[in-house]
Design brief:
Blueprint (H helix, E strand, L loop, with lengths): L2 E5 L8 H14 L4 E5 L5 H6 L6 H6 L5 H4 L1 E5 L2 E4 L4 H11 L4 H9 L9 E5 L6 H9 L2 E7 L4 H18 L5 E7 L6 H17 L15 H8 L4 H4 L4 H16 L2
């Protein structure tokens, strides 16, 4: 059975899709079969992986298309994508208007159809509250929250944590959680201070539970350049610092969800 990883934030511009595509390719390079399901209506996972955007999410959730009809190759071994576009947001509205359960719709479309493969399904979610993001979190064996180290970093983290608390109570969610700081710059006082504040506030929010905070990923021009070339960092600069930092995330995920 595929392990479900959901990458979520309720704040945009935190490196969410960058984290999704580099994690997915890193897992594929470790011999794991991976499908990225792009639930963000901006459809940026397709752009980042050099795949044409399409209404694959809408077709699967509303149009009755099978997974085999909407999945696309990425040109990379063991890595596939179910792309989305602006109609993804419409799919959520249609499901709600029809009185269907979004959790069940998402599970039936992207979790239950697999026959042994893939090893991982990674949901890239929109920075929103409720709807598809909440359903994807409810399905997750592992939730990853990217946290940009700016003065609003905690906002997006807190929102997702509150959603997970609600899911634990209402749907008995028992998945694992990782928080991945991004855009770290150790040369600036603000970045260091924001990381310390994030650590402090998370300790209070989690009330003494083990802190799921990972080593920060640095702000890097090379990550932007890789995205512009529709390459992952493992293709663009495999020996660089950013690749090493995302490789550390890959290893942690392998430890968390076998």
């Amino acid at each position: 059975m595929a392990k479900i990883i959901t990458v979520a934030s309720q704040k945009g511009g935190v490196g969410k899709t960058t984290t999704v595509v580099n994690l997915a390719h890193g897992l594929a390079l470790k011999g794991k079969s991976v499908v990225v399901v792009d639930l963000d209506s901006q459809g940026q996972a397709a752009v980042a992986l050099g795949v044409d955007q399409s209404s694959g999410i809408f077709s699967a959730l509303v149009g009755g298309s099978s997974i085999n009809q909407v999945i696309r190759g990425t040109g990379r071994k063991d890595l596939w994508l179910v792309p989305g576009d602006k109609r993804t947001a419409t799919a959520q509205l249609v499901i709600q208007a029809e009185g269907r359960d979004i959790f069940e719709a998402l599970r039936e479309a992207f979790v239950t159809p697999w026959n042994g493969k893939p090893d991982y399904v990674i949901f890239d979610t929109a920075p929103s509250v409720g709807g598809l993001q909440e359903a994807a979190l409810a399905l997750a064996h592992l939730a990853i929250i990217p946290a940009a180290l700016d003065h609003l970093a905690l906002f997006g983290v807190t929102g997702v944590l509150e959603t997970l608390v609600t899911l634990a109570r209402t749907r008995q969610w028992v998945g694992n959680l990782l928080i991945q700081p991004t855009f770290f710059d150790e040369t600036t006082r603000e970045s260091r201070r924001n990381l310390e504040e994030l650590q402090h506030n998370l300790t209070q929010l989690l009330q003494g539970a083990e802190l799921p905070l990972l080593t920060p990923i640095h702000r890097a021009t090379r990550l932007r350049e890789a995205a512009a070339e529709a390459q992952t960092i493992f293709e663009f600069e495999p020996e660089g610092r950013s690749a090493a930092e995302y490789a550390a995330l890959v290893w942690r995920v392998l430890e968390e969800v076998q």
